[in-house]
Amino acid sequence: MAEEKKLKLSNTVLPSESMKVVAESMGIAQIQEETCQLLTDEVSYRIKEIAQDALKFMHMGKRQKLTTSDIDYALKLKNVEPLYGFHAQEFIPFRFASGGGRELYFYEEKEVDLSDIINTPLPRVPLDVCLKAHWLSIEGCQPAIPENPPPAPKEQQKAEATEPLKSAKPGQEEDGPLKGKGKEKKAPPLLEGAPLRLKPRSIHELSVEQQLYYKEITEACVGSCEAKRAEALQSIATDPGLYQMLPRFSTFISEGVRVNVVQNNLALLIYLMRMVKALMDNPTLYLEKYVHELIPAVMTCIVSRQLCLRPDVDNHWALRDFAARLVAQICKHFSTTTNNIQSRITKTFTKSWVDEKTPWTTRYGSIAGLAELGHDVIKTLILPRLQQEGERIRGVLDGPVLSNIDRIGADHVQSLLLKHCAPVLAKLRPPPDNQDAYRAEFGSLGPLLCSHVVKARAQAALQAQQVNRTTLTITQPRPTLTLSQAPQPGPRTPGLLKVPGSIALPVQTLVSARAAAPPQPSPPPTKFIVMSSSSASSTQQVLSLSTSAPGSGSTTTSPVTTTVPSVQPIVKLVSTATTAPPSTAPSGPGSVQKYIVVSLPPTGEGKGGPASHSSPAPPQSSAPSPLGASALCGGKPEAGESPPPVPGTPKANGSQPPGSGSPQPAP
Amino acid sequence: MAALAEEQTEVAVKLESEGPPALLPPQAGDGAGEGGGGTTNNGPNGGGGNVAASSSAGGDGGTPKPTVAVSAVAPAGAAPVSAAAPEAGAPHDRQTLLAVLQFLRQSNLREAEEALRREARLLEEAVAGSGAPGEADGASAEAASTLLSRVTASAPGPAAPDPPGSGASGAAAVPVLATGPAAPGKVGSVAVEDQPDVSAVLSAYNQQGDPTMYEEYYSGLKHFIECSLDCHRAELSQLFYPLFVHMYLELVYNQHENEAKSFFEKFHGDQECYYQDDLRVLSSLTKKEHMKGNETMLDFRTSKFVLRISRDSYQLLKRHLQEKQNNQIWNIVQEHLYIDIFDGMPRSKQQIDAMVGSLAGEAKREANKSKVFFGLLKEPEIEVPLDDEDEEGENEEGKPKKKKPKKDSIGSKSKKQDPNAPPQNRIPLPELKDSDKLDKIMNMKETTKRVRLGPDCLPSICFYTFLNAYQGLTAVDVTDDSSLIAGGFADSTVRVWSVTPKKLRSVKQAADLSLIDKESDDVLERIMDEKTASELKILYGHSGPVYGASFSPDRNYLLSSSEDGTVRLWSLQTFTCLVGYKGHNYPVWDTQFSPYGYYFVSGGHDRVARLWATDHYQPLRIFAGHLADVNCTRFHPNSNYVATGSADRTVRLWDVLNGNCVRIFTGHKGPIHSLTFSPNGRFLATGATDGRVLLWDIGHGLMVGELKGHTDTVCSLRFSRDGEILASGSMDNTVRLWDAVKAFEDLETDDFTTATGHINLPENSQELLLGTYMTKSTPVVHLHFTRRNLVLAAGAYSPQ
């Protein structure tokens, strides 16, 4: 009987100051404390009474949300005149003000200019009520159509993964609100009579549609058609019904990486990483069960000694960067105190970095992986080793030319270190940046670091001013589109592309792109995804973004929007940038503007809101249905928008650098 | 206390004798002699009950007609005569009666007064004449009658029998004479509120105890109960809640605010969680002034909290209280609790938990003893013209054999008279029209094609989603043949959709109609105006959210009930409003047509359900007794009974014939929002805000099942056409299917269970659950089985 207090009955009453304020507002200056107290009690009681009545109307109206009209009806019950004019659909924000020892909450009423109202165009007429029928269940089986919710919500997937014995059908296990009903029933006798419930055998049988879908998706993901791939990746990233295919996808990825690392097939590795990214982006999937398969694959792509056939030319660095960001994202999402993912990953990276014999490629990957884990990791693990690493780099760069590959590697590592450490240092150290002090602390990297830090500071300052103007972030459930005008460190841009030793540039671009985002301690790296395609000039890249680029002209290039940076894209991006007049001011009108698309909005209609929606499907599910055969046909809406790529351009073939060749003449 | 308003009985009796379609409005006034017959089964208590009912029904702010005296009676119960008849059997009732009479006189409502007085006098005589047991009763009756005569002495006309002509006013008054146990009435209305009434009601709290001792009393009792034997503890624990409430109210009433507050703080955590809503109301009630208008408080005062306790436990309690000289608690037990003592084993905690939860405790055992004719009426015999083509088709499909026995079974079922069925003409039912017969034939044909459902053959569910409703969908109904869907909306509109290719057309204008050749065969087709054909018709007329909608069985009419206090009848031929039934002054939460048409029932915030006939603008019956809003109303398949579910967490079953409450089902822990009868009429399923569905055996008056699974209000329930499957839809956006056959399979309906009302519910919700189907953020507002057992569900998409 004496159970823990379940009731949260609060005896809240209005403060008596409120009564005073109200009285004052009505012109009654002096009001006794006692009167206030009485009024307070009375008013509180009446308000509660009305609220309780209003709840009744809410229940009868079959709603979960109390509306202002419910209050009106409750007042009407009491023969009180309803409050007119409070028909706000949305939350009414209360403003707060204090002063003179008083605190005040008020509702801001704007003065409305009638002529303004008259002159504004009429709002769209809300759609009329209509009736739509669909099959909720066919002979006891719920079809997976967009009108129905996804077959297994994330919570259930989680429940199945963590507590397989408990996960019966969703919602069945809840005790309901009747907790007071005898505790002895709650703990079922484990071995007494009751049949022991075993974990149901999970059957991984895919329907024919699902098999078709799986085949199409995987083929599109690793195929040669970029448009198809974009669609497939988007489907993976948004469709709600993929849960059953998750084990397949995960195996596909891990096996794919295993095979393609051996074959040094850079392009395929990139595609597979993009799939990982897409899976992680899908809000309906519970990936925990498959992280153990995905992490090794991703880690391989970061630290593998060789990822491509021609390490001197191919940009496998970008893949490492991207995979490093993925790992960071995985850590952020899935690391817990029990699985210790982050610390295990950190250990792996550190171990391979510390090792003297580690090749530059692996070294680069380890550092990138560590750096993406956030500022704290940089501070504690990378900064202390800067001096040592600087010496090593100098040894390769300044010393006798042993191998070109080593040189390139060292150069990349150097720029990577500069890129990641500069912002951290800028925050850590007080402003006067002294070359000598830096040299003393960080050795040979010191001077370079110093100049980078100075630049980082300047940029941060610039950002602080411009942040409103230059960054447009449309916030949706997932940040989808960031349009940032990244101030370019102008002089360094040109000419970097062709000289192998100066491949630092793409990194540079990324730095600027990242800095353009509002400063935050550890920016989620994977948000910054540069879309591009190798062969494309601006006219060809007509995904949704191209419309926002002012003119399809020569200088402003809107790179292709896909979900993941491929190797060329970054090079490509640079190349288009380099074709622009190099010395243009960063904020110049449009000429060097870079549009960096972070990721695609789920669909165009996300903003449309429920009003414009004619189907009950929430935005993300208006993407192709998971199992519908139509999901993969070419005739999807997006397909119509993006013209097929130029034939014969092997877009994502990482082994050749056509990207630099073909587009350059275009602008 | 099941009181009778005998005029209603008498009307019903008369109707019975007159034969079906001539259902008249209750004509009171004449036939007073018959009235006496009506009261006989009440024993000596009948008179008092009747009077109490009248006052309480008045209290609900009843009919809107200003001419009707009784609506003004509301504030009655004035206390000028409060000293009268102190030790009489029902002093309070008599006192109320006197007050009513006085009030009537003051208000110059002579006819009503006379009617009432005559009736009261008659009652007294009836009581006296029936040889009241014990002299005390007789004496009290005499005392009362002398009092009466004193009060009415100055009235102009003595109790001369009225000519039938004056029945008008009497008739008006009749519907308001409520039946059922003394209802608290709805005193919440500001307009009706009156001081003397409330103080009379509250006066019982006047006894002064030492306010500081209350906590001690209570914790003393708590200690005693917790230390008692296990078998008694569960039973005695039932005392906690009512005692807590009454002690708190006493403290508040006697203006010991601080003591009340600390008392509440200290002990409210001990109460069972299903009383939470009431406790919330109580917690806000901290001043004597607040008590005046508070309905919950009045419920507690006016209705005794009913506890069922075994004799042993009761003796134990009594001894304890006497030993401790704990008069405070003993007084409360005496005055405010009704302890229903039974012999035998004390009940277990589980058994108790299953039955408690309602606002006023459990139902008394005798409340569920009366006989209920739950069987189905005999279907009128209709020659089913066997369609040759149909037959051919069946034969070609190679199932001629199967069809024959099926048909026979249907035929035999309808021919045999169910022993539990009411007499065919117990209440007059409208005669079948030709179109009805056609519909019945259609129905039978469809029946032959019906899917046999079962655990292995689940029905398909077709979901009708209302899009762009902006949270405004409040009611849905589907016609029996599943051709039309009506939606009631918060913007006061009623919308009717046709879900078949056949569009909705209205009848032509009168001028055009006159041109039609009335002899032609297709005259019914010709009268329709092709230009008006559309899939959707919108009915405008209400001035508040439409909370209830119901199609008539013949699809010619639609009923809608609304926040504006009216029930409207719409024609689906012209798509206009035909009648607005005004009676409820408060929001009308639900309305439903009788399965045979003509009658309908409505229930609302004024705590009563009303029975209407479409051609009378005033209700034929008022079912009063619920202590809170009547949330949902359903007709029994045989149209002789009406079930109502209420916010007081009880379900009541009312006899349409005499207005009696024949069943009170307690056990729900939250306001009841959905009801449905099984097709065979034996069972009732009810769903409440606590997410549970309870199953009841009507004949035995027992709870027979509990279906747990939903996590939010169950707003729709429906049995499949053959009763094998129960579908439930809820605010938690799921439709669930339950195995009804299994649920009703082996019921404990032996004599012992029936006699004691002690039930042991099997915990088998999981086994009974056949399927759960999530919708996409769409609360399931309505469910319907088509004649072929396809489930239609409906709800409005409400994005989060």
UniProtKB/TrEMBL annotation, chain A:
Residues 12-78 form the TATA box binding protein associated factor (TAF) histone-like fold domain. GO terms for cellular component: SAGA complex; SLIK (SAGA-like) complex; transcription factor TFIID complex. It is found in: Nucleus. GO terms for biological process: RNA polymerase II preinitiation complex assembly. InterPro entries: ARM-type_fold (IPR016024), Histone-fold (IPR009072), TAF6 (IPR037796), TAF6_C (IPR011442), TAF6_C_sf (IPR046344), TAF_TATA-bd_Histone-like_dom (IPR004823). Pfam families: TAF, TAF6_C. PANTHER family: TRANSCRIPTION INITIATION FACTOR TFIID SUBUNIT 6. This is Transcription initiation factor TFIID subunit 6. It comes from Camelus ferus. The lineage of its organism: Eukaryota, Metazoa, Chordata, Craniata, Vertebrata. The gene is TAF6.
Automatic annotation (TrEMBL), chain B:
Belongs to the WD repeat TAF5 family. It comes from the Eukaryota. The TFIID basal transcription factor complex plays a major role in the initiation of RNA polymerase II (Pol II)-dependent transcription. TFIID recognizes and binds promoters with or without a TATA box via its subunit TBP, a TATA-box-binding protein, and promotes assembly of the pre-initiation complex (PIC). The TFIID complex consists of TBP and TBP-associated factors (TAFs), including TAF1, TAF2, TAF3, TAF4, TAF5, TAF6, TAF7, TAF8, TAF9, TAF10, TAF11, TAF12 and TAF13. The TFIID complex structure can be divided into 3 modules TFIID-A, TFIID-B, and TFIID-C. Residues 407-418 have a biased composition (Basic and acidic residues). One of its GO terms (cellular component) is transcription factor TFIID complex. Residues 30-50 have a biased composition (Gly residues). It comes from Camelus ferus. This is Transcription initiation factor TFIID subunit 5. WD repeats lie at residues 466-507, 539-574, 581-612, 623-664, 665-698, 707-739. GO terms for biological process: transcription initiation at RNA polymerase II promoter.
